[in-house]
Design brief:
Molybdopterin biosynthesis moeA protein, domain 3, six-stranded mixed beta sheet, 4 domains, Molybdopterin biosynthesis moea protein, domain 2, alpha/beta, about 20% helix, about 30% strand, single chain, Molybdenum Cofactor Biosythetic Enzyme, Chain A
């Protein structure tokens, strides 16, 4: 019997739509089934934004020697005790110390060494008198104030102690972290491998990005959005494939995909051309199909050879919502990152009520005006511009009938710019 001839009451697609999966139920499965990928070594210069696969332990001290923290004069602090404007003390300037060029020999009593910031502290010295507090004339230094031991000295290991954990496993490396790694002599470090993500987009009506709309055909926008989202979450998106609506086409694409994660946009519902759920159930595991979530109720989640597959609705807002709720956390987990929302939050009062229904989670796009939250349309999953007009979104919990006007709500902000208040 051909797949298109299977009676609807046997159709795997209908089961989830009768008893829709809870969002937390799906996330719990992803936490259980997914673990960070294996480590790989990369150079420190290439490590920005990568996730450490293990603790980094310093094998050297930074700095490796006592050094001057100011331009001035290195001397023995105790020899300055009792110095004042009425009782200045004089020292012979024995030479100088520059960064990378230490003063040769040992400082003798009654001597001082001219020293620059970062230069090694001469042997026998334990303090630096800053240049503007000193008077030098004809090879002699006049000191009119006592200098305590350790003044303006950077001690060995003050920045990094030998044997210390410099950066902990799981850290997402920032530019300043790379500087610390370089300072301890690290050349290559172990980071979690970034998950490769296949982008499969179905629809006979779709034209590739960069085309002009023609006739009754539309431009594929989901693959462009998904590519950027995957990059944001630390994954490596493969070049998107546009697939015709057809059972065998979808089946061949899923079987051939060799990525760590597969995202299939479109064909996830229960219509005649929605082949993805049946294909996934046949070639792998369809764990969930149909979500208690608006928008994105037609989404599905499953596995092929323990690699996660996400069936994302073709409507753009539903696609974004399903990605953010399910695919994004999975990609971040595989890459060693937190599954938590990657958005910054603000808490503000709601300007007018949000109506919801008990038993489902609502993803509501909102604007922030004069310090208050205004809901945009809560329907219209094909209106992608509702997300570009929005400053962020509010999540209405499954056990809520909505949120009353004036109530404080948590807004997840799309932008990294300052709060739009």
């Amino acid at each position: 019997m051909r797949q298109d001839d299977v009676p609807s009451f046997f159709d795997v697609r209908m089961r989830g739509f009768r008893d829709r999966a809870e969002v937390e139920q799906v996330l719990a499965l992803l936490r259980q089934r997914l673990r960070p990928l294996l480590a790989e070594k990369v150079s420190v210069k290439e490590a920005a934004g990568r996730v450490l696969a293990g603790d980094v332990v310093a094998t050297v001290a930074v700095p490796a020697f006592d050094r001057a923290a100011m331009d001035g004069y290195a001397l023995q602090a105790q020899e300055t005790f009792g110095a004042s404007a009425y009782n200045p003390m004089e020292f012979a300037i024995a030479g100088e110390a520059l960064p990378g060029q230490p003063f040769p020999g040992r400082l003798q009593p009654g001597q001082a060494v001219r020293i620059m910031t970062g230069a090694p502290l001469p042997e026998g010295a334990d303090a630096v008198l800053q240049a503007e507090a000193a008077e030098e004339s004809r090879g002699r230094l006049r000191v009119s104030d006592a200098v305590p031991p350790g003044r303006h000295v950077g001690h060995r290991g003050e920045d990094v102690a030998e044997g210390a954990v410099v950066l902990a496993s799981g850290r997402v490396l920032r530019p300043q972290d790379l500087g610390v790694l370089a300072s301890i002599g690290a050349a290559r470090i172990a980071v979690v491998r970034r998950p490769r993500v296949a982008l499969l987009v179905t629809g006979n009506e779709l034209l590739p990005c960069g085309s002009k709309p023609e006739g009754y055909r539309i431009i594929d926008s989901n693959s462009v959005m998904l590519d950027a989202l995957v990059h944001r979450d630390g994954g490596l998106p493969e070049t998107a494939q546009l697939l015709a609506d057809g059972y065998e086409v979808v089946r061949a694409a899923l079987i051939a995909a060799a990525a760590d994660v597969m995202l299939m946009s479109g064909g996830s519902s229960v219509g005649k051309e929605d082949h993805a759920p049946r294909v996934l159930a046949e070639v792998g595991e369809l764990s969930f199909h149909g979500m208690a979530l608006r928008p994105a109720s037609p989404a599905g989640v499953g596995f092929i050879d323990n690699r996660p597959v996400f069936l994302l609705p073709g409507n753009p807002v539903s696609c974004l919502s399903a990605y953010d709720f399910f695919a994004g956390p999975a990609i971040r987990r595989l890459g060693g990152r937190s599954m938590d929302w990657p958005y910054r939050c603000v808490t503000l009062p709601l300007d007018r009520k949000i109506v919801s229904a008990v038993g489902r989670v609502d993803y509501v796009r909102v604007q922030i005006r004069d310090g208050r939250v205004e809901p945009l349309a809560t329907s219209g999953a094909s209106i992608l511009t509702s997300t570009t007009r929005a400053d962020g979104f509010v999540i209405v919990a499954r056990d809520s009938e909505g949120i009353a006007a004036g109530q404080a709500v948590q807004v997840f902000l799309y932008d990294e710019r300052p709060d739009p208040t």
